Amino acid sequence: MTTNIFSDIPTNLPEELFTLLLENKNVRIERIVSEGHRTPVGEWYAQTQNEWVIVLQGQAVVEYENMEQHTLNVGDYWFIPAHTRHRVAWTIATQQTVWLAIHWL
């Protein structure tokens, strides 16, 4: 069965949308859709798994605990090692940002 990464995205997103695409004991692949969303101030992600993300549509800024920021545009990808404190500081509010995230041990 073929499915499109851009299908089934609601037009109104009061919260970020996380869609699990594939998961097994070693890897999790998810689509994330943001629209002006960001991680709340003072909150950080620090997953036990490595994470690789690519922006397929839109724009975002990822921030590390040391305040280092990286802007991600369409086609940009980023590797976040396990246990690295990071957050989404900003996503563009005028269109949906579609991410593909791959998590593994």
Q: How would you briefly describe this protein structure?
A:
The chain is mainly β. The chain has strands at residues 17-23, 27-34, 50-57, 60-64, 69-72, 77-80, 86-91, 97-104.
Characterization of the model:
By secondary structure, the protein is mainly beta. The protein has one domain (17-104): Jelly Rolls (Sandwich). 0% of the residues lie in helices and 48% in strands. The chain contains no helices and 8 strands. The chain has strands at residues 17-23, 27-34, 50-57, 60-64, 69-72, 77-80, 86-91, 97-104. The strands form 2 sheets. The protein has a 5-stranded antiparallel sheet, with no helix packed on it. A hairpin with a 3-residue loop joins strand 1 and strand 2 (27-34). The N and C termini lie far apart (28 Å). The model has no long low-confidence stretch (mean pLDDT 95).
Quick tags:
globular; 105 residues; single chain; mainly beta; 5-stranded antiparallel sheet; 48% strand; Jelly Rolls; 3-stranded antiparallel sheet
Set down the secondary structure blueprint.
Elements: E1 17-23, E2 27-34, E3 50-57, E4 60-64, E5 69-72, E6 77-80, E7 86-91, E8 97-104
Antiparallel strand pairs: 1-2, 2-8, 3-6, 3-8, 4-5, 4-7
